Amino acid sequence: MSVIPFDMRDGLIWFNGELVAWKDAKIHILSHGLHYGSCVFEGERAYGGSIFKCTEHSERFKTSAELLDFEIPYSVAEIDAAKKLVLSKNGMKDAYLRPVAWRGSEMMGVSAQNNKINVAIAAWEWPSYFDPEQRMKGIRIDMAEYRRPDPMTAPSTSKAAGLYMICTISKHRAERKGFADALMLDWQGRVAECTGANVFFTRDGAIHTPQADCFLNGITRQTVIDLAKKRGIEVIERRIMPDELASFNECFITGTAAEVTPVGEIAGIMYKPANITMTLVDDYHNAVNGR
């Protein structure tokens, strides 16, 4: 099946306050965000025309930029309105949205304090992050070689583009081996997250998940924790070591793109999607659809 390149699609993109034709939403090759990673973004989904946790994502978008020492020149309310406009003008109900902000091309060098901050918002149809048939059976995950960095070496609570470089490398390596994703450890060798999703495990009726102190505390992660607690399921946020992986019964990952995805294997350790995982798959589906 042929895939239309993202720079050749039809539609409208919100670019620095204006709607422009998709193919005209371009930046210069000497943009600071491209060369030095001074770029932040969000990933959001709309269901039935409503953007899930829209304002929470806009707030994190602003915070991510501040952590990279720049300010997005639009308020949270203006960003919310722009996202809704993009969705409406493209005639979409169920879609993935990508707000992105970056330093422009006014200065080239590590220091770029006077560069313009550009902001764009695009939306497209993206039904499932993983193969739909394999997803509900439980995806296969490998172990990544790269680790999430010490928070004293990187702005780990920012959704910064540069932090995903090792994620891309790790996911490529996993896919070449036949896996769907890779599980990353943190800089001290503890279980952290997948390349673009948070991870959860179950044992004895409780959910265990790594403390989000050196990686993004995902909005979907927070939503699923709340849903589990409403069900009376205990959620334990703690340090998890790799040698514990075989002691868990179920495993699933969460993220805006991944939603709630069951896991069937992590590098030879097998899991069976069961009651807790499938309950949260259903509860999340109901939540995002306003049920």
Descriptive notes:
With 291 residues, the protein is α+β, with helices and mostly antiparallel strands. It has 7 helices and 16 strands. The longest helix is centred in the first third of the chain and has 14 residues, at 54-67. The strands form 2 sheets. Strands 8, 9, 10, 11, 12, 13, 14, 15 and 16 form a 9-stranded mixed β-sheet that branches. Strands 1, 2, 3, 4, 5, 6 and 7 form a 7-stranded antiparallel β-sheet that branches. The radius of gyration is 19 Å and the shape is globular. The mean pLDDT is 96. The protein is 26% helix and 29% strand. It has 2 domains: 6-124, 2-Layer Sandwich (D-amino Acid Aminotransferase, Chain A, domain 1); 132-288, D-amino Acid Aminotransferase, subunit A, domain 2 (D-amino Acid Aminotransferase, Chain A, domain 2, Alpha-Beta Barrel), CATH 3.20.10. Strand 9 (181-186) and strand 10 form a beta hairpin.
Which characteristics define this entry?
D-amino Acid Aminotransferase, Chain A, domain 1, D-amino Acid Aminotransferase, Chain A, domain 2, 2 domains, 9-stranded mixed sheet, globular
Structural category: alpha+beta
Shape annotation: globular
CATH architecture of the largest domain: Alpha-Beta Barrel
In CATH terms, what is the fold-level topology of the largest domain? D-amino Acid Aminotransferase, Chain A, domain 2
Q: How many separate domains make up the residues?
A: 2
| Nearest-integer average pLDDT | 96
Number of DSSP strand runs: 16
The low-pLDDT segments are: none
Query: Main beta sheet: strand number and arrangement?
Result: 9 strands, mixed
CATH superfamily of the largest domain: D-amino Acid Aminotransferase, subunit A, domain 2
Q: How many helical stretches? A: 7
Percent range for β-strand residues = 25-35%
